[in-house]
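During the no-cost extension, the postdoctoral fellow (Dr. R.K.) reprocessed legacy sequence entries with the updated structure-token encoder. One reprocessed record is reproduced below for audit purposes.
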Amino acid sequence: MPFRYEKAPLLIDNAGKSDFPQLQHLIDPFDRSTWEGRFSSGFRTRRRPLRPEVAREIIRVFDQRIKHAGSDDIATQYQDAMAKPPPKIDTHRKATYRKYLAAAKSRKRQVAGSSSRC
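Re-encoded structure tokens follow.
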């Protein structure tokens, strides 16, 4: 399960605060005016794996935080892991998912059943 937003390890904020010094060092050279901008710039189209030491740091920090997390630190609902609540919270997510899945399957059958001739 993911952390609640306010309890999650901090990647980086605009003040330069981070729970991941190796990650901060990795994005430092990017030419943006804010730390969050540097992070976005560095990972928007990234196609390479993280350097091993950065990956190990992320795993270590996450594992340490999980190990000491209380039940109120863990998100139990989707919106708990978000910075701010969505405009509309769906309290029936499974039913909504099944409804949209059924509609998609129905459209797929309709498309497969139709034929166009030139």
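The CA atoms of residues 101 and 117 lie 29 Å apart. Helices lie at 21-27, 35-43, 52-67, 93-113. The remaining legacy entries will be reprocessed before the final report is submitted.
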